[in-house]
Automatic annotation (TrEMBL):
Protein name as catalogued: Uncharacterized protein
Residue intervals passing through the bilayer: 7-25, 31-54, 66-87, 93-111
Record keywords, A-Z: Membrane, Transmembrane, Transmembrane helix
Lineage: Archaea, Methanobacteriati, Methanobacteriota, Stenosarchaea group, Halobacteria
Length: 122
């Protein structure tokens, strides 16, 4: 369950970070990933950080690629928002993206741990 614990802990850290950023900027939509800065926080801390850590532990190039893509996505979200206006402007696009990416990685970790445990017991 180490992989699921790392990903779940990073998701909790991402929620706390987004809450702190939202409190500092006065934007509650940041917590829900409704702003570009919220999307960047969830992609970098909620997905990129744990996938990078796990890729270092397991040597899996797929996890390293996912970490790289999520951090690049967070950086692009911030650069695009700064170029087009404000990083705290509410957008409706991020909710579905974040749900799929963040919770998809959590579910993937649970499935991988289950399969690894099943193979060990058989």
């Amino acid at each position: 369950m180490k992989e699921a614990t790392v990903i779940g802990g990073s998701l909790g850290l991402a929620i706390l970070t987004a809450g702190a950023v939202g409190l500092l900027l006065g934007s509650t939509a940041t917590v829900f990933g409704g702003t570009p800065i919220g999307i960047a926080v969830y992609l970098v801390i909620g997905v990129g950080l744990p996938q990078y850590y796990l890729s270092r532990e397991t040597g899996d190039p797929t996890q390293l690629g996912l970490a790289t893509l999520s951090v690049a996505g967070g950086v692009l979200a911030m650069l695009g928002s700064l170029a087009l206006g404000s990083a705290t402007a509410e957008t409706g696009v991020g909710h579905v993206l974040l749900f799929v990416v963040v919770f998809g990685s959590v579910l993937g970790a649970i499935v991988r741990e289950f399969r690894a445990g099943y193979r060990t017991e058989s």
